[in-house]
Design brief:
Number of helices: 12
Structural class: alpha+beta
Strand order of the largest sheet: 13-14-15-16-17-18-19-20-21-22-23-24-26-27-28-29
Number of strands: 29
Largest sheet: 16 strands, antiparallel, barrel
Length: 610
């Protein structure tokens, strides 16, 4: 993944290592290949060298989210029967190359990228001296959705380019389990942890070779098709040391990459993505379409050059059908089983993330909730406190995958009222819904409970539902239900109705009413947001880490009823403040006028979930 700030961090490493000439030690299954006075360390290159000549290589460049254009490139090449005998990837290009090389069809790749919850792929690291984000989940997810799990098994020979900090040479992975080797090609110091492989420390090689055309040549490529996803050179003024350094490193990167691309590529597909950010993960389909269109423009040239080299058009379908819904559900419901013990910090502010409360709609909460999540194998423990342990302390223990579709979940809540709430149940997971059945005690009243959630989506409509049913006795049944719909009326207008109904005295309602007379015992609440989603202001990047995006205006009408009815209406502004485009902080400010009390309620909500 490419971004400007990483260059400032990695240049410290690279200046040292590329200016020395250490001796390469002979290793089993490793091969040192010199090409124009530069050495590549290659794992077992025999499979590549045994390919029938002439060999057509596809060199997929990086660029963070911008590199999603590579999927569009592959789509166009496949449609036009352009041969691809081998794939070499750098950074995000390695992830795309791994997906396709493993036997995934382009159609499945598009489906996955349009469904995957990107914010679930990474966790905030508790060891910030090593990296900002953890990467185990994304590595495991890519392996789970891949038809073949190890590079040497791929139907299309695939290599991942990285840089070895120990030897100072570029390094090509050609074998190994995906979850163990993929990270080496996108490991950006500070952002993602450098990958340790035996005595090697491998990282993203983007500053030296953002598009791996030369690496493809080192692997025996005879005809090389190279993709690029360069960003625009940042800033027009260089009045700070950081801006000056970023400008310098951007120029170094572009010069290094262009020299390689021009020297070793037979065809270059330059994707004009400068107006996109490396953090624009929500623009996946736009980027795929752009890559497809850019490649279509080059098809005539590619065919002409292939013909001049006597290379026949032949792109056989080597894809393997695979049902990736289980992998997607495991990511969505946090049911992945990862090796070792993992401890993640939890920090919430702005909304109530109580383990006992509904997830779909949350009440505003101007207090910090903090704790940790510990995972080891199938066991997960979550501890969450509000203000201090005496105010409220909750613990959830979950045994994942008791069977393929069931988890065992136990929850406990200690409060300053000295009442202990608890729940023990089995939870069932499906593609679009979950069900949890069990027994518990809520507000000092024992009950049987049934919780369920549901989600459905089409092109212009989405519907999410969450309901909690409790039976304190066989003759009583109480319910809390939350419903949220989203109608996409046009490219710039969206309507979002929300409803909360509660007939229970022992389950707390989320508060969605925004007027002055907020009442958490209201039995009926309703809200309709009219959102103007046209991008009237472009995304703003801060320090190459944060991105202010999806800035929009909305108006709303709210209703609540508990004995008497209350109405409120108002205007608001919203935005996402994203960490690397992946971890959003939700920013909302609104003013609500209450019709009954003739009062105005002003609120600023900053909701973060790390």
């Amino acid at each position: 993944m490419n971004n400007s700030f990483l260059k400032l961090v990695t240049i410290i490493f690279l200046i040292v290592f590329i200016t020395v000439s250490p001796t390469i030690r002979a290793e089993k299954n490793f091969f040192a290949k010199e090409i124009d006075d530069e050495t590549y360390l290659i794992e077992n290159p025999q499979r590549f060298l045994q390919l029938k000549q002439p060999r057509v290589a596809l060199a997929l460049g990086g660029g963070g989210a911008r590199a999603f254009v590579n999927i569009g490139v592959i789509k166009a090449l496949k449609e036009e029967n352009i041969p691809v005998d081998m794939i070499v990837g750098t950074s995000m290009g390695s992830i795309i190359g791994t997906m396709y090389g493993s036997g995934m069809s382009v159609e499945k790749m598009e489906e996955v990228l349009n469904q995957v919850p990107f914010s679930n792929l990474f966790d905030l690291s508790s060891q910030l001296n090593k990296s900002l984000l953890k990467t185990e989940k994304v590595n495991k997810f890519i392996e789970d959705i891949a038809p073949h799990k190890s590079l040497e098994e791929f139907p299309i020979p695939t290599a991942l380019l990285s840089f070895d900090l120990n030897s100072g040479y570029k390094y090509l992975n050609t074998e190994g389990q995906i979850s163990r080797v993929l990270q080496s090609s996108y490991a950006i110091p500070f952002y993602f942890p450098v990958k340790k492989n035996s005595e090697r420390y491998l990282m993203d090689p983007g500053i030296l070779e953002m598009s791996p055309a030369k690496a493809a040549k080192a692997l025996g490529g005879d005809f090389i098709i190279t993709t690029t996803a360069f960003d625009e050179l940042p800033y027009q003024k260089y009045n700070t040391s950081l801006r000056s350094a970023i400008r310098f490193l951007t120029l170094v990167q572009k010069r290094n990459s262009l020299e390689i691309i021009n020297e070793y590529s037979d065809v270059v597909i330059n994707n004009q993505v400068g107006h996109f950010s490396f953090m624009d993960f929500d623009a996946a389909q736009q980027l795929i379409d752009l890559g497809y269109q850019q490649t279509q423009k080059k098809i005539g040239l590619i065919k002409e050059k292939l013909k001049s080299r006597n290379i026949k058009l032949n792109h056989p379908d080597l894809s393997t059908e695979i049902d990736y819904s289980d992998a997607l559900n495991d990511l969505k419901y946090n049911r992945q089983l990862l090796p070792g013990m993992r401890i993640n910090p939890l920090l919430y502010y702005g909304q109530d993330y109580s383990i006992f409360n509904p997830d779909l709609l949350r009440s505003a909460l101007n207090e910090v909730q903090y704790g940790f999540e510990m995972e080891r194998g199938k066991l997960e423990v979550i501890s969450l406190a509000q203000r201090n342990l005496k105010k409220q302390w909750e613990v959830q223990t979950r045994w994942k995958k008791l069977s393929e579709d069931f988890d065992l979940i136990a929850k406990t809540k200690l409060q300053d009222t000295e009442i202990i709430d608890w729940k023990l149940g089995l939870k069932y997971y499906d593609d679009n819904y979950t069900l949890e059945l069990g027994r518990g005690s809520l507000d000092d009243e024992e009950c049987i409970y049934l919780d369920n959630s549901f989600a459905w989506q089409s092109d212009s409509l989405s519907w999410k539902s969450e309901s909690d049913l409790v039976a304190p006795s066989f003759s009583e049944l109480e319910v809390l239900t939350s419903q949220k719909l989203k109608f996409q009326l046009s490219s710039i207008w969206t309507i979002v109705p929300k409803i909360v109904y509660n007939s229970s005295d022992i389950i707390v309602s989320p508060i969605i009413y925004r007027g002055k007379e907020q009442n958490n015992s209201a039995n009926l609440q309703g809200a309709i947001d009219f959102a103007y989603t046209h991008q009237f202001m472009p995304s703003v990047e801060l320090a190459q880490i944060f991105q202010l995006a999806n800035i929009g205006l909305y108006s709303f009408v709210d209703y609540q009823s508990q004995g008497q009815s209350n109405w409120a209406s108002g205007l608001g502004i919203k935005a996402d403040f994203n960490l690397l485009g992946l971890k959003p902080i939700d920013l909302r400010a609104y003013s609500a006028y209450s019709l009954e009390s003739d009062k105005i309620n002003h609120e600023l909500n900053i909701t973060y979930n790390f």
